[in-house]
Specification:
alpha+beta, four-stranded mixed beta sheet, 8 helices, 53% helix
Length: 206
């Protein structure tokens, strides 16, 4: 069975990598500069810029085993313009390297892989996505008072990604403080009704 990697473990990887690259307090680092720092800080990491015609189906691709990141030229241009999608795509591939994933990983998981390999690929893609969001907007630079719009402006995320990141951070804070998310009132009413009919509940209701 594949082991679940917690958000706390991924956050620790983010902290370590950002510290090694000297990005501790940078809220919106230049992602091309990040790639260059990786190549100078880790001798088993390198990157290549590939013509779009040679990578028609993926924006970027990381062979974590070889430490090689390949990027389409159009993605490089988008990164230089600070486009949120390109920043996330690149951070995702960095995630595969930082999480020490095996083999070639891309934003689109191949459907021809079978069995455990497909499950493992999907799991690793999920980990890389979670890493990317935390790398671009680390927990330690976020605040519970941050609004989605603040996260968009400060960290260079798309509005959708910022909404997801806000939800992830709030959940992280609740776990850290030992608080559970309150159930919606419609769910509470349903459970109370079930309890009145003799159902045994594992959740305490107020």
């Amino acid at each position: 069975m594949l082991r679940h990697v917690t958000d706390e473990e991924i956050e620790q990887r983010v902290k370590v990598l950002r510290t090694e690259l000297g990005l501790q307090n940078q809220s919106r680092p230049d992602m091309m500069a990040v790639i260059q720092k990786l190549s100078t800080s880790f001798r088993h990491f390198d990157y290549q810029r590939i013509p779009d015609s040679e990578m028609p189906d993926v924006e970027a691709q990381c062979d974590a085993r070889k430490g090689l990141l390949r990027m389409r030229e159009s993605v490089v241009g988008a990164i230089q313009r600070g486009e949120p999608r390109a920043r996330m795509a690149l951070a995702n591939e960095i995630g595969h390297f930082a999480m020490r994933h095996s083999g070639v990983r891309t934003r689109s998981t191949t459907q021809t892989t079978a069995g455990r390999s497909l499950l493992e690929a999907k799991k690793e893609e999920g980990e890389a996505t979670r890493f990317a969001a935390m790398f671009l907007a680390p927990n330690y630079l976020l605040s519970s008072t941050n609004k989605v719009e603040n996260i968009v402006d400060r960290f260079g995320l798309s509005f959708e990604a910022a909404m997801i990141r806000k939800g992830e951070f709030d959940a992280f804070q609740r776990r850290a403080s030992g608080h559970q998310r309150e159930l919606p009132s419609v769910v509470v009413d349903y459970l109370k009704e079930a309890q009145s009919r003799g159902a045994k509940l594992w959740t305490e209701l107020n």
